[in-house]
From TrEMBL:
<keyword id="KW-0001">2Fe-2S</keyword>
<protein>
    <submittedName>
        <fullName>Rieske 2Fe-2S domain-containing protein</fullName>
    </submittedName>
</protein>
<dbReference type="InterPro" id="IPR044043">
    <property type="entry name" value="VanA_C_cat"/>
</dbReference>
<keyword id="KW-0408">Iron</keyword>
<keyword id="KW-0812">Transmembrane</keyword>
<dbReference type="InterPro" id="IPR036922">
    <property type="entry name" value="Rieske_2Fe-2S_sf"/>
</dbReference>
<feature type="domain" description="Rieske">
    <location>
        <begin position="27"/>
        <end position="137"/>
    </location>
</feature>
<dbReference type="InterPro" id="IPR050584">
    <property type="entry name" value="Cholesterol_7-desaturase"/>
</dbReference>
<dbReference type="InterPro" id="IPR017941">
    <property type="entry name" value="Rieske_2Fe-2S"/>
</dbReference>
<keyword id="KW-0479">Metal-binding</keyword>
<keyword id="KW-0411">Iron-sulfur</keyword>
<dbReference type="Pfam" id="PF19112">
    <property type="entry name" value="VanA_C"/>
</dbReference>
<keyword id="KW-0560">Oxidoreductase</keyword>
<keyword id="KW-1133">Transmembrane helix</keyword>
<keyword id="KW-0472">Membrane</keyword>
<dbReference type="Pfam" id="PF00355">
    <property type="entry name" value="Rieske"/>
</dbReference>
Length: 367
């Protein structure tokens, strides 16, 4: 007999910190340059195997990377085409073919007289969109979802034309929740990122930053960045920066220096419940990016790996299921993230509009 409380209980577990993932939302999957026409690539996203590829015309698509016949991965097969020219993926085991819509188009072992409607055999399709040099997939709460997402993927102001100046990525051995709050944490820098080239003044200083709600998240409103950080002084002029977070896991800093701008975007994609991929992408038309390119590239890599090392250190405590203590104002952004996550899940479950719980406020901390 079905348990009427099973669905609410499951939803509550999925929104508990360190558990579950948001659905009915866009996730960053790959850089557009990572996908080549005709090349099949296997990814793991939200604990599911995903085949991500381009057809011969260059259009990206994504389907579940498991053939329903004998579980062989499609990514080990090849991209082919039907008689009408439509692209399809051929399983390497028995040659079953599936279109980019996830619908089976052929089962070669069938002979005359063996009636079977092969189109009733399907694998999960993930709606896929290429935007601003990135490939996004829509992860629905319904694995049988066969429509189009109700909205486009996010668009980021400040992504100047052309290829990114810098890209780096690594996997954190942590659930996405821990990765998110670790990257938005405003007070760890003096302890984790204390290089001479990132901070020119010793000691910690009082900070006061104004925050406001933004689309599915919050924004640290435009302000002059800290004068204690050497990185901003390299840009010259009087830079102004704005830092935004949006569900499920995008954080971007938009810096304007006169007519020049820098967009530093961090995308978090859950690989599974114990691993999160962090991708950092920087676009800029500022001259310093070209002159100091090797140094900037090294700096970005060092910062990301320092955060990764701290995540690994934190895991030494988390394996004992230690409760976490959150304080105001330093951990307010982490609290907002948890509220946003719960509200998104509730709004999808109750089929209503999302109501942002964040309110305008000035937060104070020392770092």
């Amino acid at each position: 007999m079905p348990d009427g409380n099973a669905k609410p209980a499951r939803a509550e577990a999925e929104t508990k910190f360190g558990q579950g993932f948001l659905r009915d939302i866009w996730y960053f999957a790959a850089l557009a340059s990572d996908l080549k026409p005709g090349k099949l690539q296997r990814y793991e996203i939200l604990g599911e195997p995903v085949l991500l590829a381009r057809d011969r015309k260059g259009e990206p698509f994504a389907i579940r990377d498991i053939c329903p016949h004998r579980a062989a991965p499609f990514s080990a097969g090849r991209l082919t085409a039907e008689d009408d020219g439509r692209p399809s993926v051929e399983c390497p085991y028995h040659g079953w073919r599936f279109g980019t819509d996830g619908v089976c188009s052929a089962i070669p072992s069938l002979v005359d007289g063996q009636e079977m409607d092969v189109s009733r055999v399907r694998v999960r399709r993930y709606p896929t969109v290429e935007s601003q040099g990135m490939v996004w997939i829509w992860v629905s709460s319904d694995p049988r979802f066969d429509g189009e997402p109700p909205e486009p993927p996010p668009v980021f102001e400040g992504a100047v034309g052309g290829a990114p100046k810098f890209v780096d990525h690594m996997d954190f051995d942590a659930h996405m929740d821990h990765a998110v709050v670790g990257l938005m944490d405003p007070t760890h820098a003096p302890y984790v990122h204390g290089q001479w080239w990132s901070r020119k003044k010793k000691g910690q200083h009082d900070k006061a930053k104004a925050f406001a709600p933004s689309e599915r998240g919050f924004v640290m409103t435009r302000h002059a960045p800290s004068k204690s950080n050497r990185l901003y002084t390299l840009l010259g002029g009087e830079p102004l920066t704005e830092i935004t977070f949006r569900l499920p896991g995008q954080r971007w800093e938009h810096v304007a220096v006169g007519q020049r701008q820098v967009l530093a975007l961090t995308c978090l994609t859950p690989v599974n419940d114990k691993r999160t991929r962090i991708t950092q992408i920087v676009w800029t038309d500022h001259w310093a990016a070209s002159v100091l390119r090797p140094w900037f590239k090294h700096m970005i890599r060092v910062f990301l790996r320092q955060d990764g090392d701290m995540v690994n250190l934190q895991n030494e405590g988390l394996k004992y299921d230690t409760s976490l203590l959150w304080i105001d104002d330093a951990d307010k952004q982490a609290k907002w993230y948890q509220q946003l996550k719960r509200e998104w899940a509730a709004s999808r479950r109750e089929e209503r509009a999302f109501r942002n719980p964040v309110e305008e406020v000035t937060l104070r901390w020392k770092s």
